[in-house]
Amino acid sequence: MDSIIKKICAGDVRSASRLIRDIEDKIPEARAKIKKLYAHTGKSFIIGITGAPGAGKSTLTDALITELRKQNKTIGVLAVDPTSPFTGGAILGDRIRMQRHAEDTGVFVRSLATRGALGGLSHAAGNAIHVMEAMGKDIIIVETVGIGQQEIDIINHAHSVAVVLVPGMGDEIQTMKAGLMEIADIFVINKANRAGAKQLQTELTSMLNLSPKTADGWKPPIVIIGDAFKPDSFAEDIAQLAQKIEEHHIYLQQSGKLTERMHRKAMAEIKDALAACLLEPVLESLTVSGELEHFAEKIKSRKADPYSVAEEITQRFFKNQDKK
Amino acid sequence: MPERKIRVMVAKPGLDGHDRGARILARCFRDAGFEVVYTGCHQTPEQIAAAAIQEDVDLVGLSCLSGAHRVLFPRVVEILREKDAQDITVIGGGIIPEQDFPALYSSGIKAIFTPGASLDSIVEWIRTNIKPH
Fold it and tell me: Would the CB atoms of A89 and B2 count as touching at under 8 Å?
């Protein structure tokens, strides 16, 4: 197993991608590998790109890769697309926009399906990031699934979050709402060649002027990105975006906020790991034994309530733990 | 024991922009419960092989309607072998004359589907022949 860890740390794509697969499929051995890998993680800068479906996240990611490669940074990309709630299948199509980087050995793009996760990422995202960190990627870009207002798990994983907006998605009340509009370290108004971009910019600016976040020394900049079919001006806009991300990185380091974010990340990781160690095995054994079905029947016919069932299961589980 | 999800990639090598068939297949694989990476048109065999390895897919389905399959399909298999990824199965489809089948099979293409092949038969072939890594 140690040879796998060595290979990943040496940047081997095959081993890394295979481990990400094992994490996604929840293969038990993957957890042991992550434990060994963990000491080699935590050195990459992680950028989150989030926004509505079709806002242009993949196209922006592709262009950012080009820009960052000019600076000789090595890059990992995790691109998340939705899993069907009906068949479990998924179309992973973000990669289409990034295929021109396929042969660049400094770029590793891996698609993930959400597999039931509702926070805009996949359950495997956190550990997939760790695998890319262990590979030594300077920068990891995490592109979320197309999201709405509240799927903001990205803040537990990324150091800098860019929220991508497009004109024509609603009036200024939308900019006041909690959730997505609060998490941006950088706002992107994409497809700004379309009608309504100026208005969106005005609304965002006035929202930001009211925001208490300005008090801590960082006011989220608004980056305007125009027509992606005009390569020269588009590249300039993307350079501007890369510049703002870099400024935010420097701000995080100088203000001590980076440590704060790492702390938030660690908290989220403990919670995830606890769920994996406590809840999942319990559910798994109840499913295998058929008891889960049995409990559901009892609750359905009102012979039991969900809380009593959960308490009974919990007590039994802890008794077993004591015996061990 | 957790269940392995089948991951496939649908790719169009070469100068061929007709991807209706490839898209229908991608959709059909999605509905069969597979995770499908679609790379779009105009891909070089090198791009396809690199993407297949990065995505750790079990299967690459190549679609070609331009007549260049005898060069492009075997090249994908060859690069996968060079990169020690021969466990990734490669199948092909499109306008492929029957007399080309033997050469493609001997180059390592595991199955060929031509116009008229039903979606079900392709999914069935994958379910029977692909054991996820």
Answer: no
Q: Which two tokens stand for residue A18?
A: 């295979």
Reported as a single tens digit per residue, the pLDDT across A32-57 is 999 999 999 999 999 999 999 999 99
Per-residue confidence (pLDDT) for residue A215, from 0 to 100: 59
Taking an 8 Å cut-off on Cβ atoms, the answer to whether B35 and A20 are in contact is no
A14 — pLDDT class (breaks 50, 70, 90): very high
Q: Do the chains contact at B51 and A99, CB–CB below 8 Å?
A: yes
Tell me which of A255, A286, A301 is where a domain ends.
A255
Q: Does residue B126 sit at the A interface (CB-CB below 8 Å)?
A: no
Residues 6+ apart with CB under 8 A from A76: A44, A107, A108, A109, A110, A129, A132, A133, A135, A137, A139, A140, A141
| Containing structural domain, residue A300 | 269-323
Domains of chain B plus CATH, in order, are: 7-128 (3.40.50.280)
Is the complex ipTM higher than 0.90? yes
Residues A246 and A148 occupy one common structural domain: yes
Q: Do B32 and A21 touch (CB under 8 A)?
A: no
pLDDT score, position A235: 96
Q: Are A228 and A278 members of one domain?
A: no
Q: Is B76 on the interface with A (CB under 8 A)?
A: no
Count of positions (residues) in chain B: 133
Rounded Cα distance between A6 and A13, Å, is 12
Residues A40 and A113 in one domain: yes
Q: Which residues of A touch B36 (CB under 8 A)?
A: 89-92
A69-87 burial string, b = 16+ CB within 10 Å, else e?
beeebbbbbbbbbbbeeee
State the CB neighbour count (10 A cutoff) for residue A167: 17
- CB of B89 less than 8 A from some CB of A: no
Task: Take residue B34 and report the two structure tokens written for it.
Answer: 């597979």
Count of structural domains, chain A: 2
In sequence order, the 6+-apart residues with CB closer than 8 A to the CB of A12 are A135
The pLDDT tens digits of the residues spanning B37-57 come to 999 899 999 999 999 999 999
| A102 with B51: Cβ contact below 8 A | yes
Find the radius of gyration of the CA atoms of chain B.
Answer: 13
DSSP character at residue A193: T
Q: State which amino acid sits at residue A317.
A: F
- Which among A255, A280, A307 is the end of a domain? A255
Q: Provide the token pair at A5.
A: 């860890």
**DSSP state at residue B39:** -
Verify that A87 and A150 share a domain, yes or no: yes
**How far is it, in rounded angstroms, from Cα A37 to Cα B62?**
35
